[in-house]
Automatic annotation (TrEMBL):
Transmembrane segments: none annotated. PANTHER family: TRANSCRIPTIONAL REGULATOR YQJI. It comes from Subtercola lobariae. This is Transcription regulator PadR N-terminal domain-containing protein. InterPro entries: Tscrpt_reg_PadR_N, WH-like_DNA-bd_sf, WH_DNA-bd_sf.
Amino acid sequence: MSSIRLFILGTFAQHGEMHGHQLRLLAEEEHVSLWTDISVGSLYGAMKRLAGEGLIDVVRVEREGNFPERQVYAISQAGRRALVTIRHDGLSQFTIKPDPFDLALTRLDPERLDELPEVMEHRLALLQLQLIEVSRLNARALPYLSVAEKFALNHREHRLAAEIAWHEELISEIPAIVADEAARRKVDAHV
């Protein structure tokens, strides 16, 4: 499921015709980069790909004042059909991407095990700061959101809280992790 395809097609279906700059402004206004995996700068390239696939069409070219000509797009019938599938997939599929941290945790440097507690405490502190910032931003946005938007923004907050709880559990097990790694190192040295 592609978030950027859902955002672009959904936006055209909801708001009608617009050019790339209008779409970008809307994405910035909605702060999509804070609660999705969409980079606002990637919208133009994605629009070109969608146009190439026939999911959006150029309906006209317009020029305002001294600004360059802009192509105005609209969602096509094929785009509307694709949007039905993308929306369904977005709601029904579940995705948690692998975190490189997990691999790094299983490949610790035996010469630096004494640094592990400090590194983990620092990581936890960064997550806690991120949760504070997300909570602050969510609280500011709350009065302007629909019920569905409130749940979407709160999802990130809940994920961060769960990540913090997991890190706290991990930190409590650092002595056992260090002891296990040291024991493995001794076994590997004898083999």
